[in-house]
Amino acid sequence: MPRILVVEDEVHIAKGLKFNLELEGHSVEVISDGMKAYEAVSDGGRPYDLIILDIMLPSLSGFDVCRGIRKQEIYTPILMLTAKSFDKDKITGLTVGADDYLTKPFNLEELIVRVHSLLRRRNWDRKRPAGPPDLRFRDVIIDFERALTTIAGIEVNLTPIELKVMRCLAAAQGRVVSREELMEVAWNLSGPVNTRTVDNFIMRLRRLFEADPSRPRHILSVRGEGYRLVTDPWAADGGSTE
After folding, report:
1. Would you tell me which CATH number, out of the four given (3.40.50.360, 1.20.120.80, 3.20.20.70, 1.10.10.10), belongs to the domain 135-235?
2. Where 4-aspartylphosphate occurs, residue numbers (predicted)?
């Protein structure tokens, strides 16, 4: 049974989420304080399979909770809830590591669909037979169809956005992918791009997949253009690796 943490200080919303998610067959815990939620996720106990995280919280904001969780390399999917509808808040939430974003007041049916989607990507749905991996490089194997990733034979749980970015880079087959394209495909955002949003996320992927993240051989930057994925660095034909 998937285990969900709801971090919400509005009592009626928290109760409604708990009731409806439990009707869907999930185990739900509710915490109303940001610091307590951060400690619950970080204490090394039984991990959660999904976190529904409000932004406006006592003691520690949802942004800070999410940022702290990701700094500990805990990649549990996070769905952010907020009364703020400004693009900058959405960008901030996704930049600090959230996987999805829903603005209050939200449609309950839509939230349930998003929860199920995130849990499927968390590998609760493994009914499909294994097919050939979509991407291999170094000791990394990524099967995008089943959302399964292994590094040196060890299974690693990628967040939905991490999978989207890697799929986008893989589909380009060595072509340079612009920051704007990555933002649109992975974050569903268009228009002017804060380049640091993408750059910081690429640094996170390099820490996962590169033997030496400071000298990448596979996820390469091309100055002034964007990023490209090189599965065979010996066959790479130029481009900055900074």
Report:
1. 1.10.10.10
2. 54
- This prediction has a pTM of 0.57
Q: Which two tokens stand for residue 131?
A: 């097919």
Measured distance CA(132)–CA(145) in Å, rounded: 9
Each of the 242 residues of the chain gets a pLDDT tens digit; together they read 889 999 999 999 999 999 999 999 999 999 999 999 999 998 877 789 999 999 999 999 999 999 999 888 788 899 999 876 666 777 888 888 898 889 888 999 999 999 988 888 766 444 444 444 579 998 999 988 778 899 988 888 888 888 888 988 998 888 999 988 888 777 766 555 566 778 888 999 999 999 999 999 999 999 989 999 999 876 555 444 45
Nearest Cα residue to 179 out of 171, 161, 169, 170: 169
DSSP 126-150: --SPP---SEEETTEEEETTTTEEE
**Cα distance between residue 81 and residue 105, in whole Å:** 9
> 240 near 220, Cβ under 8 Å?
yes
